[in-house]
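Input record (one chain):
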Amino acid sequence: MLPPPMKAVDIPQANNLDQIREVVHAVAAGAVTREAVQEATALSARHVAYHVHAARILGWLDVKGTKYELSLAATALLDTEPGTKEELQAMQAALTASPAVQALAPKLLSGQRPAVTDLADRIARVGKLAPATALRRAQTFLAWRDRVLGAPTPVDAPAAAPSADGVPMPHLWRLRVTDFLGLARLDLHLPTLAMVHGPAGAGRTSLAEALRLLFGIGSGLTLGELLGERRNVSGAVEWSGLVGGPSLAVHKGAPSFALEVELRSERNEPCTLQVEVAVPPGADPYLVREEMTVGNPARVVYAGPDDDSDAPETHARVRKSADGDALGPRVPVLRDQPLLTQIAAAANAPRHVREDAARAVQILSNIRTFRPDPNTLRQPGRPGPLFLGPRGEGFPSALEVALQNEAVHAALIARWADVLDRTPRGFTLLRDPMGRIIPHEVLDDAWALPAPAWSDTALVLAAATTIFATTAPHQVLVWDDADAYLPPEILVELLEDAESRGGPQVILLVRHAHTAQALAAHRAGTLERA
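The corresponding structure, as predicted from the sequence alone:
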């Protein structure tokens, strides 16, 4: 049973609980106005409002006119140290006690992570929000859950379907690209363990960006965010967009680009998603067409937009019945973002349509892309970013997973010691005063040397082992420039470790022919050239 309707203003939109805590701490230190909090935290005025709003919903702040006051519940939070179990317990208590959280996401902290589509559907109905807005607010709640309970486990996503010989079926089965970045045409089969090699200018980066774009589509980004950038509520870049930005998204002046990906879910049923996006010079990108088909023979799940106007709001057609191919109801959608996540969250779409779309969302949103850049890895980042981007931006989120899971943490420390030829006691993960996680090497005299002081090779190796250790079997790992800093024998060891854990699907993009030859020789019978 749904609670009474809520005002949109009572639905939070600040994703990061650590930054919300910083705002509460600023108020405790005497910053009791928006301007004072802005100065103390370096947040924009708009983002201060978002974080104060979230802190109020969580019971940590009261707003009296233009002044902010600490509530009694804030004491329980501020009495804890960042990154401790006590802090997590205080955050969990605040989520449980919040009337807004219980009304909008009553099972948020239950054993199984709520599906983002189900949560968005409830928020849309209770808060009277548009599906796309409700989806973003649902992601806020899930970010809170992941912060206090840890990142999702493989149980929360589809397992790899076994093939006839018992080998896990790859989640990404085939990719076709037309007029995207440096690729005029590409038709690529993707096995469970794939290798693509070629020198600079051969299209490796374009391929990596196409795969990363699929992740963005599954994450509900708008087209402007996909091709440009997305910033979180604190103003930090959360999604860095395409290499070169929107102006270079199409190949040699083509009017549009198209991606077609065939997916395989736990049902081992083919699902094909086709997306075409127009990128007019000097104007916003817009969706030309999108269609999703499932099954063999294929049946259309949805298709749209169903008109060629330039209005921001349009409609898509969804399948009329679960076992038929006829298109039925018209579902309102926005033309400035792909339809997939909109259909998955559309309250007026048939349940079977939403479920098919949700399965595709799960697969695409589990693509992780890693392109090692030592300069980026040397910069400590905040834990919990949504995206593991092509320049290592997600290294802190991988470390967060390792820090919260004792088994993963211990295995990672041992792995670092092995590959860097040190003793396991010589490594640890430490938080700085801002709560950011930095790997350290502990020296004989008990001084800790932070990872930014490591050599390029050591730092990339530490990052790569972290990424592999925290990438679950249900995920897809795209590793661009895999041989930029590491020799083939190390790559082989990492792949063997990943296989021993039962996954994930790995797509290696390497630049040197000798690396490809060495990998193929080491992995004969397992490693396929895509």
